[in-house]
Amino acid sequence: MVRVTQVLEAHVLGEGDWIAVSEICQLCRIDLDAVRELAALGVMSSRERAPGEWQVPATALPRLRVVGRLMQDLGVNVSGAALALELLETQRELEVRLRRLERLVMDY
Amino acid sequence: MEFRDYYKILGVERSATADQIKTAYRRLARKYHPDVSKEPNAEAQFKEMQEAYEVLRDPEKRAAYDQLGSEWKSGQSFHPPPDWGSGFEFSGRPAGAGRAGRRQPGATAGGTYSEEEFSDFFSSLFGGGSPFAGARGRAGGRDHHARIDVTLEEAYRGTSRMLELKRPEVKPDGSVELHSHTVRVTIPAGVTEGQLIRLGGQGEPAAGGGSPGDLYLEVHILPDRTFTLENRDVTLTFPVAPWEAALGGSVTVPTLGGPVEMRIPSGAQSGQKLRLRGRGLPGQPPGDQYVQLKVVLPPADSPQAKALYEEMRAKLNFDPRAGGAR
């Protein structure tokens, strides 16, 4: 018998949510310079809510976490991780399209 | 508990240099990294490698591990020797320095997995405390991460999950024990692939009265038999009879929210996509459902059916290759 001690309400981080860059650094285990470089490379957008107070859209978090993991686990630099991320995303899109086409072909 | 041969896991000799260990880890990491790899069981392999690297990259831990001797084989039943730990001090790694800070206990339950967990073997040798050493000196606790698997229907309707959260507790002797408690998490409708869910204060407790970390759940939507998902849009392949496509008409189509009536325009073709606006995953704006028509021919398996096909051939003057296709 599982004893439930608490019922938690989840907060889904979605469009409209912005996260402070300092928090991004902690969540994605990347440093401030890397976040700046990723924004310059166009991996995600950013905004300056107040002077010196930079934020990143919460929707970019999954991508930035992948970048962080690639940098730490594979030892690649920021631009290498950004390139790998784009290639991985392209690969996934192609896989989705391939699965859809395969399903269509199988249906015929 | 089973012994783990960290040298064998990384494929290096016991005499390997730090550089050789690093190279071996990087080579294997490229092959098995869960973000990159298509290898079956890549995630489990990668965790094992990370654990091995965590020990062998750290001179203190490696020296202690080597004290166990070279007679042990992977999978052998293992208990730490009675005098284990004397003469060694596992200081962990400074915060933000890399792997040690990354390995954290997380949430486990049906449909979720923790990103980072130690084996019992590791914990028995180096204690649960070492992985959290990175948090020392921080005002607040670390954030924890886990993945949560949901079906497409659950993503559409919202769902709840029981999560077993593991929390480290420092004992008076300085060692750390993991304690579990179960929580129910309500997941709202409309979550999408890769989206993060934040559970405030459910991460690592703070060491010195600061605020605890948060628990982040990364949503993974499981493949569905009926619909394919792309962002918030879903696509359904829908079979129709030739006369439904040719003449048009009303059909009942399944959607995530239940069956709806849809009008097929006359002259529709196989492969054509029709859109049901707002019938995808909920959101601002909600996704759409695409219905891809698939015209299915009735078999010419009776005299009557054959006669109808013969009549069409005679009367329709139809050449499907008139557009130039051969």
Output the keywords:
heterodimer; A: 108 residues; alpha+beta; 4 helices; globular; B: 326 residues; four-stranded mixed sheet; 25% helix
- What can be said about the biggest beta sheet of chain B? 4 strands, mixed
> What would you report as the Rg of chain B, rounded to the nearest angstrom?
29 Å
Order of helices and strands of chain A: EEEHHEEHH
Protein chain pair with the most extensive contact, residues per chain:
A-B, 39 and 47 residues
* Global geometry of chain B: elongated
Strand content of chain A: 15-25%
Broad structural category of chain B: alpha+beta
Largest β sheet strand count, sense and barrel closure of chain A: 3 strands, antiparallel
Number of DSSP strands of chain A? Answer: 5
Strand order of the largest sheet of chain A: 3-5-4
**Mean residue pLDDT of chain A:** 86
Count of beta strands of chain B: 13
Q: Point out poorly predicted stretches of chain B.
A: 91-115, 129-138
State the shape of chain A.
globular
Mean pLDDT of chain B: 80
| H-E string of chain B | HHHHHEEHEHEEEEEEHEEEEH
Oligomeric state of the chains in view: heterodimer
Q: For the terminal residues of chain A, how far apart are their CA atoms?
A: 49 Å
Specify the helix fraction band of chain B. 10-25%
